[in-house]
Amino acid sequence: MAHPQRRRLLAGLAAGTSGLHLPTARAAVDPKALARTAAGKPPVSWYESSPTEQIDKVIAAFNTVHPGVRVRQTRLIGGNELAVRAVQESQARGYTGDVLTGGADHTWQLGERKLLEPVEWAGLGVPRAMTPSPLVMATTASVYVVLWNTRKVSDAEAPRTWEDVLHPKWTQRMGSWVRAAAFAQLAATIGPDTARRQLERFIALKPMLFKSTFPLAQAVGAGEVDVGIGFYHSTLPPINAGAPVRMRALDVVPMHIIYSAVSRGARNPEGARLLLAWLSTEAGALAYEQATGRGNPLIATTETAKFIAGRRVSEWPHDKSGDLAALNEFYNRLLEGVGAAR
Amino acid sequence: MTTQRRVPLLSPALLALLVYLVAVPLALLLVASFKPSGLPLDEGWGVGHYLTVYGDPGFWKLLGNTLQFAIGCAVGALALGGGLAWLVERTDLPFKGASRVMIALPMVVPPFLLAMGWVLLASPRTGFLNQIARDAFGLASAPLNVYSMGGMVFVEVLALVPSVYLILSAAFRNMDPALEEAALASGARWPQMVRRIFVPLLAPALLAAAAYLTIVGFLVFDVPGTLGMPVGIFVVSSRIVYLATDQSGGTSAYGQIAAIAVTFLVLLLALAWAYRRLTARASRFVTVTGKGWRPRQLALGAFKPVAVALVLVYFLLAVVAPLGLLLWTSFTPFLAPVSLSMVERMSLAQHVAVWSNPRVGVAAWNSLWVSVVAATVVVAIAFAVAWTVLRTRQPARRTIDVLAFMPLAIPGTMIGMALVYVYLTLSFVPVYGTAWILVIAYVTVYLSFTSRTANATLIQIHPELEEAARTSGAPAATTVRRIVLPLMLPALAGAWVWVVAHVMRELSTALLLQGEDNATLAVQLWSYWAGGEPTKAAAVGVWLVVAMTVVTVLWQWLSNRSHRTVHG
């Protein structure tokens, strides 16, 4: 698994999660000049999958700093649809959304198709650890957690390690996303064979499978399942609404970094770069996290970074997205075997 | 049958419209199935997607599950929907207007909310009904389990009954009672009459309903996704959704989806062929003639309370119970089973939050006008299709018939993908990213159902009525306006309401065609759901049902007026 970029990213994560502020590159580009140019162009078109009401708040926060730069979100339902839409639009009319936000495999796919514009991130003041390549910048992350219903499981009993998660006492009490992506990311640290054995033990628990981690978190709150493996941001809504749900990070935290990129042929590239530069700041990251629940683990003051502080994180590097895809497909098929396990 | 000369341009114009609406997405779907990336404008050709899909033993297992599900749904919905249609249209069942509303209303409840309602009712762990049963009878285990194939079929049948009812009720309504009276006078028993009269006369409508149900059973995801997936019961639609949204590698696997959809196309072509063979001699199904008649109303006698109870039980299971749970959820701060401890936490906060969100108002307006325009256009096209196919001898009429049937086999995601390409390319038609692209999509998507409904209704009306009008010197337009339309109006109005309701709740195409400002109420509802706010989603669902209740009651009122006008 040794890989320079992965090591760099994980080193960056470690720095971020241990409460240190990342070194910020000195901005070589004048943000005011960039904002003036951006203000005279069409609104920055941002392809992002969060609910529109949430992104409205992010844009409002951005406009407090750059009031003249208009941003419009097009909500696409997920990374795959975002990537396909970007490809279709680029093929048919030569441009797509100015800013594209998606997972590693989506931005990797778009990069392979030469649809992303290289950006000199350092010149924009973006910390180096957030930019594994000139094409993408880390904006947020989906962080895996264990969550439990406090009326069914005491805090002391709730799992703290993956070994606890796999204990047979959770048989038919466990819930999971229908995708085995947690184990695929875990494989970056513990190796694909060990991760596969862990997944097989997980499947033996006969977990209930959910299309997304949001209904999973709600099901835990409703007592439909006692314990689940979900995401930090999707567990927040029931907790914030007062449901009997708690969560914690496990000893190794699988994670998917969410990246943003400027598209090739963007109609407002200056506005796009300005938006991304702002999202890389503490103010931008906090505004994003407050609105969507997704925080940037590379910025120490976000709740997400605090949540996983001191934990080992596990994620495949951006340029290994092709290998990760194959692993995901294989593990997903195994998890679908839950029907047979029942 | 000399309409050919009177409207010479109808058939070519209709054919051109259908080629534009249906053949273009179909062609893109086929091209996608042979492209390595699944995107029609990418380079390369191959059959890799077919080998991947059909060479996978897992796919055949999915197909087995799907067949069980689809056949169970088709049989259940045909039996229940047909029985209810017969009760309402051919017996002296009391409160018919109310019954029609009660049977049609479930079509407005988004199926995933219906499924969610049934989870809260019949989940083994937290289901309300199971709690009651355990407390009342001291049972050790839950008697009901909605997370099962049986549960999936049960909930989907509840959702499909209104569609069957709408197809069959017009056919029942237009049946000439003389045939039944003759059979009864000849000493025929009820089973004989059903077999020898009802089934043959209703064959076009029954086959149309069966074809619709079978394909829907293959494509629908909401109920299998909510009730089957949690316990590992996967169907073909689960695979399609996976390939569209979760497939690893960075893009949707449109190539494989298209290769799967080809199976549906073949199945649908077979059904269309069977339908054409069955209806080749259209005169066999004519029941509305120039003779004055009123539909026979069978006296239910002592069975009347049982019949009323059946309608009420359906309404209870399909609307009252799940909607009650939906209402409960819309008053709670988070998704929670029914319990006394939650009562004190109930409030109107979710409803206030929903109505305070300006985007909800915009989405509601989009849903309203898109559904009304799409329903009006698609019903008009469906009428033109039925007229051309059954009343003219235009050489293209068979092609028109098949083209109008085809959209049913195209998954919503593929329609969305195709329309994105079409309107990005036809940039002089500025609909990309607007709500108008949704209108076009829905006209295409719902053409199958409406054209089958119009076809099944027109086939029962004898051309002698139109011939008499023409003999009296009435132009074709007057004949259609004064004779054909009034006779078909209840069925067309039913189809219109059906389309409005389905557009209001449709999600997969609306999500794929989202632009900056064209979100619909269903998208807003999904947005709440997917954003971890099911209680707000429930609040939107409740108001959606309220709005559609008004539309359904209005439809019934208009339908009754039209019925009185036609039959005196």
Could you please describe the fold and organization of this structure?
The complex is a heterodimer of chains A (342) and B (568). Chain A is α/β, with parallel strands linked by helices and 342 residues long. Chain A has 2 domains: 4-141 and 255-315, Periplasmic binding protein-like II (D-Maltodextrin-Binding Protein, domain 2); 143-254 and 322-337, Periplasmic binding protein-like II (D-Maltodextrin-Binding Protein, domain 2, 3-Layer(aba) Sandwich). Chain A has helices at 4-17, 31-39, 52-65, 79-93, 104-112, 162-165, 181-190, 192-204, 213-222, 232-240, 269-279, 282-292, 303-307, 321-336, 338-341, and strands spanning 44-48, 71-75, 99-102, 137-149, 174-177, 208-210, 227-231, 245-248, 252-262, 312-314. In chain A, strands 1, 2, 3, 4, 5, 6, 7, 8, 9 and 10 form a 10-stranded mixed sheet that branches. In chain A, α3 links the parallel β1 (44-48) and β2 (71-75). In chain A, α2 (31-39) crosses α11 and α4 (79-93) runs parallel beside α5. Chain A is globular, with a radius of gyration of 20 Å. The relative contact order of chain A is 0.20. Chain B has 568 residues and is an all-alpha fold. Chain B has a single domain, classed as Orthogonal Bundle (MetI-like fold). Helices cover 73% and strands 0% of the residues of chain B. Chain B is built from 26 helices and no strands. Chain B has helices spanning 3-6, 10-34, 48-54, 57-90, 96-104, 111-122, 128-137, 149-173, 177-185, 190-219, 222-228, 236-246, 254-278, 304-331, 340-343, 349-356, 358-391, 397-405, 412-425, 436-445, 447-458, 464-471, 476-505, 508-512, 521-530, 534-567. In chain B, α22 (464-471) packs across α23. The longest helix of chain B is centred in the first third of the chain and has 34 residues, at 57-90. Chain B is globular and about 70 Å long. Chain B starts with a helix and ends with a helix. The interface between A and B is large, with 71 and 59 residues.
